[in-house]
Amino acid sequence: MRKICVITGTRAEFGLLSGLMRKIRESGRTQLQVIATNMHLSPRYGNTYQEIEKDGFTIDRKIPILDDGKDDADATLAAMAKALSGFAAAFSELAPDLVVVLGDRYEILSAATAALIKGIPIAHIHGGEVTEGAYDDAIRHSITKMSSLHFTATEAYRKRVIQLGEQPDRVFCVGAPGVENIRTIPLMDQAEIEESIGFRLDDHTILVTYHPATLGSHTAAQDIRAFIDALDRRKDLRVVFTLPNSDTGSRDIADAIQAFVARNGDRAIACKSLGVRRYLSVMKNVAAVVGNSSSGLLEAPSLGIPTLDIGDRQKGRIAADSVLHCETDTESILEGLDRVLCPASREKASRVVNPYEKAGTTQAIFDVISRCPLDGLKQKHFYDLP
Questions:
Q1: Residue ranges covered by each domain of the chain
Q2: In sequence order, which residues have a C-beta less than 8 Å from that of residue 77 and are 6 or more positions away?
Q3: What is 2-175+358-371's CATH number?
Q4: Which CATH class is domain 184-350?
Q5: Which of 107, 131, 150, 256 is the most exposed place for a label (fewest CB within 10 A)?
């Protein structure tokens, strides 16, 4: 039986991987192994390993890496070092036949590095994308070069992975798992989700996720201050925040959000983790998605919800016509809010085609990782473009 080890370090990533994890667990020819790390094991981020267990999964290894007292570059590097050591030990104990990773986060880079040195083939989901405003961009491409099997969200991204020297017959365009969740998970209606989060949603409610732009020319503190200033001036808006990931500078953002909620408790809430079903249910029932999270580009278009993407964090990603962009200063954000909340934007979003949507995403990934011969995956040959 093929042992497939899935790595997860964040709430959002687990939501994207959970469908694939179920297929691995339920198949008679594969054995699921789960390693949880980073934000999942931190009280500051909601101890979301409990959500993994609540969904019926067994966590085979937990690798704590965060120092919740710091979030600067040195703390990130220290977390990566802990992760590298932890994954090395976990892979020795679990002896997986294949490791599955998603995306572009620093703890995933450590996991991929350990698997590479251990000689364990890697399957990578969401490669080939570009996000020029964050160091995640370089991490993503680095993981691509360590991996042997690749599952991209669009054909353009598939071509980019091939451009990086990967063999075309190992690169599969499958769509985005997060979009498939919208079609397969029964979402809550407005009354149910309002009761679940204890907050009223209406035509003036926005869903906000704001992460540090780690390669930006401004600090995270400067960017979130400008954004909060805009929200202070738009007192008509109701706001559901999800708190940022554990990136360099995230504490400044989280603190500013908590302070805004404390003085605007009648129109704002902040959630450490909503879980995939509640998050998508909130998204379905708001007027717009605002911030700089990839979910505004990947998932929101399939729900017919317009997105205001702020700054350069997602710069370079393919975006549907329902996604509007603005700069990080207060006046640009205010102008962007006017545009994204106008009736024309909502009407356009209701009929947009999502470039990340493709039927059978999870099944396509599972078919490859469960059946592909593993012999020969470890040694790679660089593919030169014709």
A1: 2-175+358-371, 184-350
A2: none
A3: 3.40.50.2000
A4: alpha beta
A5: 256
